[in-house]
Amino acid sequence: MFDGSFDEPGEARAADEAERLDGATRVFVSHRELLFSIVYNLLASVADTEDVLQETWLSWTSRLQRSDEAGHEEVQNPRAYLVRIAVNHALARRASITRRRETYVGPWLPEPLITEEMAAGPVSDTAERALRAESVSLAMLVVLETLTPLERAVFVLNEVFGYAHTEIADILKRSPSAVRQLAHRARGHVHARRPRYQTDPRVQAEVTERFIAAALGGDLSSLLEILAPDVTMWTDGGGKVRTAGLRPVAGREKVMRLLAGYANRAPHDLDIRYRPVNGDPSAVIFSAEAPYAVLVVDLEPTSDRVQGIYAVTNPDKLGSLNSDPDE
């Protein structure tokens, strides 16, 4: 008579495997936010990041299965192992992303990521702190595109997530001295293009709202006050939005004319939501309840004038946005 125990070896093995899989899933889920943050900063694409996380999950479960076999040690530090696997999968994916960029129509901008409201007080979680850091702003991600994949990996792991050079050397399978050289080059390139400074989020939010009101209202006098003389505007339509420009527009007068044209052609049912995008107060715009554009402004370090405007209108990059601000 069956008494609830496993009489067959096969059933016992199946139960053990199910228990191990549940444990592996719990470990992976507990580190998923960190992995997503790191990989997104390396690839600047939500879809590619999700694919890399899937590859990381498969590598993780495969490694655990091998550890059950004779002669294979268990993973002593799952967090370190998962980060190493995720980073190397991301680096492998960079080649295909680069090929896609070569045929991309118009300026390329990172895929915008809606982040949580920036709370007051200290932030203990590494991934949450990284998402709030200035280094992952849309403007900074554009600068990171100028680095080599290895330089970018070293910069992100060291400057954003606080990994030591010796830890990064283990992740990338490079010597510590090589990692220090990569870090030095990357830091020099980034800081030459974007000096260190931290914009007050309240100021950026106020300027963003003023800019949107002036741009969509065709208020040229207000735009003249808001825009820096050397302002540059990037519009990423991916060749799928007729009004998107094919190259960045630089200079206050040219940008004002461009914005005036956009205002004249914009739909009449625009719904503007002010939400944090990549940690920055930004405008998320909907039309007929569908994502229409994400607009992020970058301010001068010494004033509240706008020096950079990043407009993402490519529908492929807006699919993850939610029209309900409460969801």
From TrEMBL:
The keyword Transcription regulation applies. One of its GO terms (molecular function) is DNA binding. InterPro entries: ECF_Sigma-70_Domain, NTF2-like_dom_sf, RNA_pol_sigma-70_dom, RNA_pol_sigma70_r2, RNA_pol_sigma70_r4_t2, RNA_pol_sigma_r2, RNA_pol_sigma_r3/r4-like, WH-like_DNA-bd_sf. Residues 139-189 form the RNA polymerase sigma factor 70 region 4 type domain. Transmembrane segments: none annotated. GO terms for biological process: DNA-templated transcription initiation. Keywords: Sigma factor, Transcription, Transcription regulation. It comes from the Bacteria. Pfam families: Sigma70_r2 (PF04542), Sigma70_r4_2 (PF08281). Residues 28-95 form the RNA polymerase sigma-70 region domain. Interacts transiently with the RNA polymerase catalytic core formed by RpoA, RpoB, RpoC and RpoZ (2 alpha, 1 beta, 1 beta' and 1 omega subunit) to form the RNA polymerase holoenzyme that can initiate transcription. Belongs to the sigma-70 factor family. ECF subfamily. NCBIfam families: PRK09636.1, sigma70-ECF. This is RNA polymerase sigma-70 factor, ECF subfamily. The lineage of its organism: Bacteria, Bacillati, Actinomycetota, Actinomycetes, Kitasatosporales.
